[in-house]
Design goal:
It is built from 9 helices and 2 strands, in the order ααααααβααβα. By secondary structure, it is mainly alpha-helical. The protein has a two-stranded antiparallel sheet with strand order 1-2. The longest helix has 34 residues.
Protein backbone atom coordinates (compact mmCIF):
# COMPACT_ATOMS: atom_id res chain seq x y z
CA UNK A 1 0.00 0.00 0.00
CA UNK A 2 1.57 3.27 -1.11
CA UNK A 3 1.69 6.20 1.33
CA UNK A 4 1.50 9.77 0.21
CA UNK A 5 1.59 13.16 1.99
CA UNK A 6 -2.02 13.65 0.91
CA UNK A 7 -3.06 10.69 3.07
CA UNK A 8 -1.42 12.24 6.12
CA UNK A 9 -3.16 15.54 5.42
CA UNK A 10 -6.51 13.75 5.16
CA UNK A 11 -5.96 11.91 8.44
CA UNK A 12 -4.99 15.10 10.24
CA UNK A 13 -8.20 16.71 9.07
CA UNK A 14 -10.34 13.80 10.29
CA UNK A 15 -8.69 13.32 13.67
CA UNK A 16 -9.56 16.25 15.89
CA UNK A 17 -8.63 16.23 19.57
CA UNK A 18 -10.75 18.04 22.19
CA UNK A 19 -8.07 20.67 22.60
CA UNK A 20 -7.86 21.55 18.92
CA UNK A 21 -8.77 24.96 17.54
CA UNK A 22 -11.82 23.63 15.73
CA UNK A 23 -13.02 21.91 18.88
CA UNK A 24 -12.74 25.14 20.87
CA UNK A 25 -14.54 27.08 18.18
CA UNK A 26 -17.43 24.62 18.10
CA UNK A 27 -17.70 24.70 21.87
CA UNK A 28 -17.76 28.49 21.86
CA UNK A 29 -20.41 28.57 19.16
CA UNK A 30 -22.52 26.05 21.07
CA UNK A 31 -22.27 28.10 24.25
CA UNK A 32 -23.23 31.26 22.37
CA UNK A 33 -26.25 29.50 20.88
CA UNK A 34 -27.32 28.34 24.34
CA UNK A 35 -27.13 31.88 25.72
CA UNK A 36 -29.06 33.28 22.76
CA UNK A 37 -31.73 30.63 23.15
CA UNK A 38 -31.97 31.28 26.90
CA UNK A 39 -32.39 35.03 26.30
CA UNK A 40 -34.94 34.64 23.50
CA UNK A 41 -38.03 36.78 24.03
CA UNK A 42 -36.68 38.35 27.23
CA UNK A 43 -37.74 41.90 26.35
CA UNK A 44 -41.28 40.78 25.62
CA UNK A 45 -41.36 38.84 28.90
CA UNK A 46 -40.19 41.93 30.78
CA UNK A 47 -43.01 43.94 29.21
CA UNK A 48 -45.65 41.39 30.23
CA UNK A 49 -44.16 40.94 33.70
CA UNK A 50 -44.16 44.68 34.40
CA UNK A 51 -47.78 45.15 33.40
CA UNK A 52 -48.73 42.14 35.50
CA UNK A 53 -47.07 43.83 38.47
CA UNK A 54 -48.81 47.14 37.70
CA UNK A 55 -52.16 45.34 37.53
CA UNK A 56 -51.53 43.76 40.94
CA UNK A 57 -50.48 47.13 42.35
CA UNK A 58 -53.73 48.64 41.05
CA UNK A 59 -55.75 45.94 42.80
CA UNK A 60 -53.89 46.47 46.06
CA UNK A 61 -54.37 50.23 45.85
CA UNK A 62 -58.09 49.91 45.21
CA UNK A 63 -58.36 47.54 48.16
CA UNK A 64 -56.69 50.11 50.42
CA UNK A 65 -59.02 52.89 49.24
CA UNK A 66 -62.09 50.70 49.62
CA UNK A 67 -60.97 49.71 53.12
CA UNK A 68 -60.56 53.38 54.03
CA UNK A 69 -64.03 54.34 52.75
CA UNK A 70 -65.57 51.36 54.55
CA UNK A 71 -63.76 52.31 57.75
CA UNK A 72 -65.06 55.90 57.57
CA UNK A 73 -68.64 54.84 56.91
CA UNK A 74 -68.69 52.23 59.68
CA UNK A 75 -66.71 54.16 62.28
CA UNK A 76 -68.35 57.54 61.78
CA UNK A 77 -71.84 56.34 60.88
CA UNK A 78 -73.28 58.39 63.73
CA UNK A 79 -71.31 61.50 62.79
CA UNK A 80 -73.00 64.27 60.79
CA UNK A 81 -73.16 63.66 57.06
CA UNK A 82 -71.05 66.77 56.39
CA UNK A 83 -68.21 65.30 58.47
CA UNK A 84 -68.27 62.02 56.59
CA UNK A 85 -68.35 63.84 53.26
CA UNK A 86 -65.32 65.92 54.22
CA UNK A 87 -63.42 62.75 55.10
CA UNK A 88 -64.42 60.96 51.91
CA UNK A 89 -63.95 64.02 49.67
CA UNK A 90 -60.20 63.65 50.14
CA UNK A 91 -60.42 60.41 48.18
CA UNK A 92 -58.49 61.83 45.20
CA UNK A 93 -55.50 62.77 47.35
CA UNK A 94 -55.85 59.44 49.08
CA UNK A 95 -55.73 57.55 45.79
CA UNK A 96 -52.54 59.29 44.71
CA UNK A 97 -50.78 58.77 48.03
CA UNK A 98 -51.86 55.14 48.38
CA UNK A 99 -50.85 54.42 44.78
CA UNK A 100 -47.35 55.77 45.32
CA UNK A 101 -47.09 53.96 48.65
CA UNK A 102 -48.31 50.67 47.16
CA UNK A 103 -46.10 51.04 44.08
CA UNK A 104 -42.96 51.68 46.11
CA UNK A 105 -43.66 49.07 48.78
CA UNK A 106 -44.58 46.36 46.31
CA UNK A 107 -41.33 46.52 44.36
CA UNK A 108 -39.10 47.08 47.41
CA UNK A 109 -40.53 44.15 49.36
CA UNK A 110 -40.74 41.88 46.32
CA UNK A 111 -37.14 42.44 45.25
CA UNK A 112 -35.61 42.34 48.71
CA UNK A 113 -37.59 39.42 50.14
CA UNK A 114 -38.54 37.64 46.91
CA UNK A 115 -35.05 36.61 45.77
CA UNK A 116 -34.93 39.30 43.08
CA UNK A 117 -38.35 38.45 41.70
CA UNK A 118 -41.78 40.06 41.67
CA UNK A 119 -45.01 38.16 41.00
CA UNK A 120 -44.86 39.22 37.37
CA UNK A 121 -41.26 38.12 36.95
CA UNK A 122 -42.03 34.80 38.61
CA UNK A 123 -44.90 34.14 36.20
CA UNK A 124 -42.70 34.89 33.17
CA UNK A 125 -39.55 33.14 34.43
CA UNK A 126 -37.48 36.26 34.99
CA UNK A 127 -35.29 37.42 37.86
CA UNK A 128 -33.00 40.31 38.74
CA UNK A 129 -29.34 39.34 38.97
CA UNK A 130 -27.36 40.88 41.82
CA UNK A 131 -23.72 41.89 41.47
CA UNK A 132 -23.22 42.06 45.24
CA UNK A 133 -22.74 38.86 47.20
CA UNK A 134 -25.02 36.03 46.09
CA UNK A 135 -26.32 36.49 42.57
CA UNK A 136 -29.83 35.30 43.46
CA UNK A 137 -30.25 37.65 46.44
CA UNK A 138 -30.59 41.41 46.08
CA UNK A 139 -29.13 43.52 48.84
CA UNK A 140 -31.45 46.05 50.48
CA UNK A 141 -29.65 48.90 48.72
CA UNK A 142 -29.99 47.18 45.33
CA UNK A 143 -33.71 46.59 45.95
CA UNK A 144 -34.16 50.17 47.18
CA UNK A 145 -32.33 51.77 44.25
CA UNK A 146 -34.14 49.58 41.73
CA UNK A 147 -37.44 50.64 43.29
CA UNK A 148 -36.33 54.26 43.12
CA UNK A 149 -35.67 53.75 39.41
CA UNK A 150 -39.20 52.44 38.89
CA UNK A 151 -40.69 55.28 40.91
CA UNK A 152 -38.68 57.90 38.99
CA UNK A 153 -39.93 56.53 35.67
CA UNK A 154 -43.50 56.36 36.96
CA UNK A 155 -43.78 59.89 38.37
CA UNK A 156 -42.21 61.42 35.24
CA UNK A 157 -44.92 60.10 32.97
CA UNK A 158 -43.75 56.50 32.48
CA UNK A 159 -42.11 57.30 29.12
CA UNK A 160 -38.67 56.59 30.61
CA UNK A 161 -39.64 52.93 30.81
CA UNK A 162 -39.35 52.84 27.00
CA UNK A 163 -35.56 53.29 27.23
CA UNK A 164 -35.10 49.51 27.22
CA UNK A 165 -36.48 49.34 23.68
CA UNK A 166 -33.81 51.73 22.33
CA UNK A 167 -30.71 50.12 23.88
CA UNK A 168 -28.97 47.07 22.48
CA UNK A 169 -28.43 45.67 25.99
CA UNK A 170 -32.10 46.32 26.93
CA UNK A 171 -31.13 48.06 30.15
CA UNK A 172 -33.41 50.70 31.63
CA UNK A 173 -33.39 53.33 34.38
CA UNK A 174 -33.99 50.80 37.21
CA UNK A 175 -31.05 48.73 35.92
CA UNK A 176 -28.73 51.75 35.97
CA UNK A 177 -29.96 52.98 39.37
CA UNK A 178 -29.29 49.64 41.05
CA UNK A 179 -26.46 48.30 38.86
CA UNK A 180 -28.42 45.06 38.41
CA UNK A 181 -29.79 43.31 35.34
CA UNK A 182 -32.84 41.28 34.40
CA UNK A 183 -32.23 37.76 33.11
CA UNK A 184 -34.35 34.72 32.36
CA UNK A 185 -34.29 31.65 34.57
CA UNK A 186 -32.60 29.79 31.70
CA UNK A 187 -29.84 32.42 31.63
CA UNK A 188 -29.47 32.13 35.38
CA UNK A 189 -28.97 28.35 35.11
CA UNK A 190 -26.29 28.89 32.46
CA UNK A 191 -24.68 31.55 34.66
CA UNK A 192 -24.52 29.13 37.59
CA UNK A 193 -23.23 26.36 35.33
CA UNK A 194 -20.36 28.48 33.98
CA UNK A 195 -19.57 29.78 37.46
CA UNK A 196 -19.37 26.21 38.72
CA UNK A 197 -17.06 25.27 35.83
CA UNK A 198 -14.75 28.18 36.66
CA UNK A 199 -14.53 27.06 40.28
CA UNK A 200 -14.02 23.36 39.53
CA UNK A 201 -11.76 23.92 36.51
CA UNK A 202 -8.41 24.30 38.35
CA UNK A 203 -9.09 21.16 40.42
CA UNK A 204 -9.68 19.07 37.31
CA UNK A 205 -6.50 20.42 35.70
CA UNK A 206 -4.55 19.52 38.83
CA UNK A 207 -5.86 15.96 38.80
CA UNK A 208 -4.94 15.57 35.13
CA UNK A 209 -1.43 16.83 35.81
CA UNK A 210 -1.00 14.43 38.71
CA UNK A 211 -2.10 11.44 36.68
CA UNK A 212 0.10 12.55 33.80
CA UNK A 213 3.16 12.54 36.00
Amino acid sequence: MNWSPKDEETNSQVLQFPGSVNGQKNQTELRTERWEKAAHGKLKKRFYAFFTDVFIIGLLQKTLVYSYVTFINETFHQAPLSVRKNLINNIIDLRISTLLFTFFSYFLISYYMGHGKTIGKTLFNLRVLSHEGRAEELSFMEAFMRTMGYTTCYVTGSFLFALVFFRSDNRGIPDFFSQTEVITEEEFLLYQEELSEQIEGPREDLQLDLFAS
